[in-house]
Amino acid sequence: MTSAAEHGVALTERAVAAVRADPQRLVLAHDRFAGPWVDGRPRPVAPEVLERAVFPSGRPLPPSLRRWLAYDSGMLRRFGWFAEEGADGVDALVFTPRPLGEIATAEFGEGWGAPFGALSERFDECFLLPGGSDSRRVLATGQADEHGEYPVFALDVDDLPCIELMYPGLDVYLADTAGLPLRRGRGYSGLAADPVYLRRMHAHARSRFGGQFHELCLDWPA
Q: Using one digit for the tens of pLDDT, what is the confidence trace for 129-155?
């Protein structure tokens, strides 16, 4: 059995505590362009705004995202999760998702990004996250797991364009990126070897890739 502290809001709370201890440290030690976890002071979203917030598709926000936004919205704003602020400042929580192919093309260029467009119908509501050097991290909404979380994928164009399940939810992504120790095997989908996250990883693999953990993107436009 796994502990509740290793999933969802409780795990996100631990990630928040790790960031709060040094909020100006870089999100990614290898990439200063990703910026700090918190640029200046935290910019929390008001509870009444979070209470009514949903994604444009109508899908509910995962519990981890609600908890993170209650602490800070700035880092996700820098990565394009929301529309520009209006007169209400951070209370103007308007999500701006993109289909997978649009994110891939923006990040990798037309040549390497275009093949991901073939998956845009299945991955229609995606958000970019900090991570990788030649690769990228993307949260994609859809079928949530037992903790109400949506998976985070790695997009890679080394050799062939590929999408691979990397984290079972934003909760685990935040914990890992913030430096909490996780047990993992090798490769992007190494958390599938962790008994704590194995069940969640396999659930997302079944719903997204028919039981596999990755899919090659070989459909280049003519």
A: 999 888 999 999 999 999 999 999 999
What separation, in Å, do the N-terminal and C-terminal C-alpha atoms of the chain show? 50
Q: Match 């659930």 to its residue by tokens.
A: 203
Quick check: 189 and 221 in contact, CB under 8 A? Answer: no
Length of the chain: 222
pTM: 0.94
Both tokens assigned to 2: 């796994």
DSSP secondary structure of 164-204: EEEESSHHHHHHHHTT------SSTTGGGGSTTTHHHHHHH
| Per-residue confidence (pLDDT) for residue 133, from 0 to 100 | 84
The mean predicted confidence, pLDDT, of the chain is 93
User: What would the two tokens of residue 200 be?
Assistant: 């969640």
Name the β-bridge partners of 98.
126
Query: For the sheet containing 136-140, what is the strand order?
Result: 126-129, 136-140, 152-156, 162-167, 214-216
